[in-house]
């Protein structure tokens, strides 16, 4: 007796979703900043796995390369170069924590109501045999080449501006 593919896909989806939520909760509850960074790696990796299951292989690769790779290395370097004993003033009190819980609860209620009452359009399933990278690349270098080039010029100008600002006299 074989297990249906839909069951395996759904099981993987919910497993990685639970890992992402557990990583996010661990990120918030961790006492050490380095442990929070490791929980963030777990969360971002789980999101990349979700994207693979959903058939968005290009986005999953970007998630792993940019966020799990480069951004997390930058965050860990920042943690390592920061002095360990930093005294932060206690500016929040119990009222601020209560306000945070109330706002989070309100967002949960509004999101649940919107999801439950909205009519979601049914789309026809697309075949998963074609890579999304090819489709994105074709659109990026044909139909959207001008916005792509404008964005690249804007990023180069921003990088040059950051170098000029950061350069010491």
Q: If you had to describe this structure to a student in words, what would you say it looks like?
A:
This protein is mainly alpha-helical and 169 residues long. The radius of gyration is 22 Å and the shape is extended. The protein has helices at 5-29, 33-53, 57-81, 94-117, 132-141, 145-166. It has two domains: 1-83, Four Helix Bundle (Hemerythrin (Met), subunit A); 134-169.
Produce the secondary structure layout.
Elements: H1 5-29, H2 33-53, H3 57-81, H4 94-117, H5 132-141, H6 145-166
Helix pairs in contact: 1-2, 2-3
Main beta-sheet annotation: none
- The level of helicity is over 70%
CA radius of gyration: 22 Å
The domain count comes to 2
Number of strands: 0
| Overall shape | extended
Determine the N-to-C terminus distance: 73 Å
Whole-number mean pLDDT? 86
In CATH terms, the superfamily of the largest domain is NADH-ubiquinone/plastoquinone oxidoreductase chain 6, subunit NuoJ
> Ranges with pLDDT <50 over ≥5 residues?
none
Number of helices: 6
Strand fraction equals: under 5%
CATH architecture of the largest domain: Up-down Bundle
Order of helices and strands: HHHHHH
Quote the CATH topology of the largest domain: Four Helix Bundle (Hemerythrin (Met), subunit A)
Quaternary structure classification: single chain
Tell me briefly what this model is:
This protein is an all-alpha fold. It contains six helices and no strands.
């Amino acid at each position: 007796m074989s297990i249906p593919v839909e069951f395996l896909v759904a099981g993987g989806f919910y497993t990685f979703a639970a890992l992402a939520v557990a990583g996010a909760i661990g990120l918030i509850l961790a006492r050490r900043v380095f442990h929070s960074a490791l929980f963030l790696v777990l969360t971002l990796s789980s999101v990349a796995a979700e994207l693979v299951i959903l058939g968005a292989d290009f986005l999953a690769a970007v998630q792993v390369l940019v966020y799990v790779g480069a951004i997390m290395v930058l965050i860990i370097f920042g943690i390592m170069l920061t002095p360990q004993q930093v005294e932060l003033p206690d500016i929040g009190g119990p009222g601020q924590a209560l306000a945070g819980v109330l706002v989070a609860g309100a967002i949960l209620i509004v999101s649940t109501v919107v999801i439950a009452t909205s009519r979601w359009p049914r789309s026809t399933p697309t075949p998963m045999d074609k890579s999304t990278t090819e489709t994105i690349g074709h659109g990026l270098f044909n139909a959207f080449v001008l916005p792509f080039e404008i964005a690249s010029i804007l990023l180069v100008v921003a990088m040059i501006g950051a170098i000029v600002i950061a350069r010491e006299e």
